[in-house]
Specification:
The structure is a single chain. The termini are close together. The protein contains six helices and five strands, in the order E-H-H-E-H-H-E-H-E-E-H. 42% of the residues lie in helices and 12% in strands. Helix 3 runs antiparallel to helix 4. The protein is globular and about 40 Å long. The protein is an alpha/beta fold.
């Protein structure tokens, strides 16, 4: 079991899939609640989370999730002054890259294949891993 404290940025779909109590990915939310990992968000990321939760979850879940993210001591809301514009295939995902770069995050947790472009870019070095691979770091 890893004793390292990871700094992460969570893609919206990963967050969404980890919220349900019976989800196989619920462990990610539990790690955040248990203060075992640090999460970084920006206003743009928070707005996307809220927008997607508004469409895909009920108002109570949306409000609880957003309130938790805004109040948890290990969730850091930062201002990302970098606009790297690396992601051309899905420019909306640049906010996650910018946040990861600004915060010095260890990983972006995502299933989005658009992020594979980062494997071929020497700078900035931003690692993207799936939630399954992230879980392996704790076992």
């Amino acid at each position: 079991m890893s004793s390292e404290r990871y700094k992460i940025v969570i893609d919206t779909n990963v967050l969404l899939s980890s919220i349900p109590k019976k989800s196989e990915y619920r462990w990610l939310i539990d790690k955040i609640v248990d203060d075992e990992i640090d999460v970084f968000i920006t206003n743009d990321i928070l707005m996307e989370y809220e927008e997607v939760l508004e469409k895909k979850a009920n108002r109570i879940i949306k409000n609880l999730t957003i309130d938790f993210l805004l109040n948890a001591e290990n969730v850091y809301k930062i201002f990302s002054y970098h606009k790297l514009n690396i992601m051309t295939t899905d420019p909306d995902d640049n906010k996650f890259i910018d946040c990861a770069y600004t915060s010095g995050a260890d990983f972006i947790i995502s299933h989005d294949k658009h992020f594979n472009i980062l494997e071929n870019i020497p700078f900035p070095r931003i690692k993207v891993i799936s939630i399954e691979d992230f879980k392996k770091l704790f076992s």
